[in-house]
Amino acid sequence: MPKHLRRDLENLKKEMLYMGSMVEGAINKAINSLVARNTEWAEDVMKGDDEIDAKENEIQEECLKVLALHQPVAEDLRFIITVMKVNNDLERMGDLAVNIAERGVYLSTQPPIRAPLNFSKMMERVQAMVHESLNALVNSDTALARKVWREDDAVDEMNKEMYVALQDLMREDPDTIQRAIHTLSASRHLERIADLATNIAEDIIFMAEGEIVRHRLEDYLKQENQA
User: Fold this and answer.
1) From its phi and psi, is residue 37 left (phi > 0), alpha (psi between -120 and 50) or beta?
2) How many angstroms separate the most distant Cα atoms in the chain?
3) Confidence class for position 221, pLDDT limits 50, 70, 90
4) 90 in the Ramachandran plot: left (φ > 0), alpha (ψ -120 to 50) or beta?
């Protein structure tokens, strides 16, 4: 690999690490603001979104510059393609963190909902998926990426359970409808963050192995069960 290309790829990796840490911090702070009913944390997340947007643009421009200057092929090209896709997914995660923070601001002004919600478990699972997907990216760890990939269905199921519980609550007590809708919205945003972490995991597998696994989870699980 030419020296200048190696330098530029290392710089891209560092920029992605920084972007990932910004977004992971925003997600964690948004979730904590929702749980602790802390509006200051929520406002920090909302204020920090512009910085995440600006960093996304910087990384995108850097990727285009590397493509134009070096015309990379094979693994190097897959790496840059992956960075561009992951960069976009991280920015979207940042937007979803803002949405969660906004739901948290409203809910902090209302009495807590009395319903059998397993919100804490869902939050922990989503936070773990985000953290693991970023670790997998940094270390090109396809085993960890596949672990994240397999966990997405569990979060989807938690979101469905949340919907059923809140639907029942709204039927029983119409006074809770507004709070329940905001809570359900936060759950949906968490589920979307998990989806994006799964996208990152799929892109890491493509980057490291050249294999496209998107939309093939059922086939992969069948292969695992047969092994």
Assistant:
1) left
2) 67
3) very low
4) alpha
Q: Rounded CA gap, 154 and 152, in Å?
A: 5
What's the CATH superfamily of 3-226?
Answer: Phosphate transport system protein phou homolog 2; domain 2 (1.20.58.220)
Stated pTM of the model: 0.89
Q: In terms of C-beta distances under 8 Å and separation of at least 24 residues, what long-range contacts does 32-41 make, across chains too?
A: 33/100, 33/101, 33/104, 33/105, 34/100, 34/101, 34/103, 34/104, 34/107, 34/186, 35/119, 35/120, 35/123, 37/104, 37/107, 37/108, 38/104, 38/108, 39/104, 39/105, 39/108, 41/101
Per-residue model confidence as pLDDT tens digits over 53-91: 999 999 999 999 999 988 888 888 989 999 999 999 999
Host H or E run for residue 156: helix 142-172
